[in-house]
Write a structure and sequence with these properties.
homodimer, alpha/beta, Rossmann fold, DNA-binding
DNA sequence: CGGTTGATGTAACGAAAATTACAACACCTG
DNA sequence: CAGGTGTTGTAATTTTCGTTACATCAACCG
């Protein structure tokens, strides 16, 4: 009984069918507002049918959707002791902007990271780690205008501990060629944050229709690619700047890498040593 | 838009008839959850008729009750950026390392970021921001095996708000060619963390001897490049993993970018708009 | 004291939402 | 490849809710 709705969601996420899981993701990413809309609105927002939302709620153990909403409200009342006081944004046009700005920035980033990890579904993480660690799979990575650097970053490191890792090169035209050879043994990890790129979406859809396993790392509002992705990890990106921050995405990448590494340590270790030797001789 | 629903309620409270005022009071007392129930439930809770609730909402200036609820939810999302403050549940100790590892990782990363910024020298930051923002300088970036992704990341974004930004391409052999044309009007931003790469060091030394302004972003133990660099920013990189974490470096980059952007906003803004237009026409 | 204004509740209406039943589909298993 | 299981959307049904029209009542004013 002590369990909160968020906990229930995270726990049961693994037992959910795909579309219901999408609903759960939205719920977690936009908690709790997403759950306070009508089930129909929520369904429309995620791109599934209303009954799917209802079934997910039922699977969580609620008698009805209204029951679920009531529970959500109860939790919130308990939680929001004094929401009025802090309502004003603390952007604080304080003393020296050059002195305070970095501090506010770092606080926001650190907070983003904590929230990102707090919202993570253990199931999704485990699945992704397993897929990335399985050497029978071929791994491909790609990102958007800014996030492609992350795809590059992760691919360079992952390549050290396992074979079969590629980073789709910049030229979007070339993606098609590489997509041609993919099938259900391929894993395509996509980074996409707002403003979402249509080219990435097209790629994801084409890949999904070829039974490629599409993984998505995105922002908390979920790229449309979430609809075709097998697993999704959302991260917080808002900071006091005109730009969004991709730092939480990077932390996520590193956490995935750490998990894959420790899960496959016997092999990874050998491989790293071999690589070391190679570097010294060449 | 600036006015929140609470403000409106408090202001108009005096002009309300008795029963409607009772509704308003309940709304304020149990804000905002009271307003997220159905109007009928709210009416019943206060002991008035449903239309009274509706009339009160109309008097506040809302088109309908659903409209009112929508607004309430919007405020909520804006306000509750961290609804999970208490969500740090016992986390079901059973799950083991797969559940706890990411949490420890995120804590370490967040801490790294905070410490990194806490130790920053405002002077160094200001100087670097000024150099990066000065359009008379040409900017070049490069990084090591892993950190080159960061060089790429920052250069892509900086290029949006100013001209003359280049990222030295992967082939180390080509670095020499690009170095050839550099002089005191060039700024070379280098990323280098342990294990420090000799090729980077050679590049830095060559550049410095040509009076190029070398900037360094490195780890807390300082790359040897620090000796020839004009300005240095160190970041924390240790996390519970066999890998080091470059997340704090990224946060640093984003903070620099934010500062440069806001310092040169007049120009940057124009340029971004122009770019936007260009993207739409092409 | 009659008439007017505004507040309030009752009841009826219509729209939207939740729920249920069913059929199509994909996926796995033998 | 057939049969079964489980998932999903469509469509029909029922319920709830928001909304509106109207009647009652109280207070105020000429």
């Amino acid at each position: 009984m002590a369990q909160t709705v968020v906990d229930q969601l995270r726990e049961s996420l693994g037992n959910f069918p795909v579309t219901e899981r999408r609903v759960a993701h939205r719920l977690l990413a936009e908690y709790p507002m997403a759950g306070l809309q009508s089930a129909t609105d929520l369904a429309r927002a995620v791109g599934v049918s209303t009954p799917t939302v209802l079934r997910m709620v039922a699977r969580l153990g609620f008698e009805s959707y209204v029951d679920f909403q009531r529970r959500l409200r109860e939790e919130l009342t308990a939680q929001l002791s004094s929401p009025l006081s802090k309502a004003q944004s603390p952007t604080a046009a304080g003393a020296g902007p050059s002195a305070d700005a970095p501090r506010a920035f770092s606080a926001a980033v650190a907070r983003n990271i904590e929230e990102t990890f707090a919202h993570l579904s253990a199931h999704e993480v485990d699945q992704i780690v397993a897929l990335l660690g399985d050497r029978r799979n071929r791994i491909h990575m790609v990102g958007g205008r800014f996030t492609d650097a992350l795809a590059r970053y992760l691919s360079v490191q992952l390549r050290i501990i396992r074979p079969g890792v590629s980073h789709l090169q910049d030229q979007e035209a070339n993606w098609q060629d590489q997509l041609l050879d993919m099938d259900q043994r391929d894993v395509l990890l996509i980074f996409d944050i707002r403003r979402y790129q249509v080219s990435l979406q097209r790629l994801a859809e084409a890949a999904a229709s070829q039974r490629v396993c599409v993984l998505l790392i995105t922002d908390q509002w979920l790229s449309p690619i979430a609809r075709v992705a097998r697993h999704v990890l959302p991260a917080r990106v808002v900071v006091p700047s005109v730009w969004d921050s991709n730092t939480a995405l990077m932390a996520l990448c590193e956490s995935l890498l750490a998990a894959v590494t420790s899960n496959t340590w016997d092999y990874a270790n050998k491989r790293m040593r071999a690589l070391e030797k190679l570097r010294n001789t060449v």
